[in-house]
Design a protein that fits this description.
Layout (H helix, E strand, L loop, with lengths): L6 E4 L2 H4 L4 H12 L6 E6 H4 L4 H12 L3 E7 L7 H5 L2 E6 L1 H4 L8 H15 L3 E5 L4 H10 L3 E3 L16
Parallel strand pairs: 1-2, 2-3, 3-4, 4-5, 5-6
Helix pairs in contact: 2-4
Length: 166
C-alpha cells in the first residue's frame, strides 16, 4: 500500500460491542500487515450512543496503538459534544445533508458548517466534509476550515476490486 494512504472502515454496532474489540482489531491489522496508524475507524453518532466503559477502554487501547477514531455523519443523529471529550475521537465527518445545501456563505447550511468547523478546530479534531459535488462547495468549506472533502467532485465511490495499490 502506498505511503500516506489510509483505510477508513465503518464499524457496526455489533462489531463495536464485541467483548474482544481491541484484541480483534489489532489482530486483524497485524494479520493483514497494516500499520495501525493507517486505519481510521468510523462510528456513526447512533453507534456512539451505545459506548459503555468497556467499549471506551477498548477504544482507548486501540487508539494508543495508533488507530484513529472518527465520528461519521456528524450532525444527523444525536450529536453531542461530549463524544470527542469523553472518547478518543480524532476526527469529525460532516454529513452530506449539510454540504448539499451550501451554495454561498449566507445559507443556513453554510453557517452550520462554519460553526461545526470551529467546534472541531477548538477540539483539535481533523475534519472531512462529505458530499462535496461542486468546486464552489469545496472552496467555501476549505475557507471555513474543513481540511478534507469527500464526494463526486473528487471521484465516484469505487469497489475495492477497482483500486490499484502501487
Amino acid at each position: 500500500m502506498p505511503d500516506g494512504v489510509g483505510i477508513g472502515v465503518n464499524l457496526t454496532v455489533a462489531s463495536l460491542s464485541r467483548p474482544d474489540l481491541a484484541d480483534w482489531l489489532l489482530g486483524e491489522l497485524d494479520a493483514a500487515g497494516i500499520s495501525p496508524g493507517r486505519l481510521h475507524l468510523e462510528l456513526t453518532e447512533t453507534s456512539v450512543l451505545r459506548v459503555d466503559a468497556d467499549v471506551t477502554s477498548a477504544m482507548e487501547e486501540v487508539a494508543a496503538a495508533g488507530v484513529r477514531w472518527w465520528v461519521d455523519d456528524f450532525g444527523t443523529g444525536y450529536s453531542s459534544i461530549s463524544h470527542p471529550r469523553d472518547l478518543p475521537i480524532t476526527g469529525m465527518k460532516l454529513d452530506r445533508s449539510f454540504t448539499a445545501g451550501i451554495t454561498d456563505r449566507t445559507t443556513r447550511n453554510a453557517r452550520l458548517a462554519l460553526g461545526l468547523a470551529g467546534l472541531a478546530a477548538g477540539l483539535g479534531l481533523d475534519t472531512i466534509a462529505e458530499g462535496v459535488e461542486t468546486p464552489q462547495q469545496a472552496q467555501l468549506l476549505a475557507e471555513q476550515g474543513w481540511q478534507m472533502g469527500q464526494g463526486l467532485l473528487f471521484g465516484a465511490a469505487a469497489d475495492v476490486s477497482a483500486l490499484e495499490l502501487a
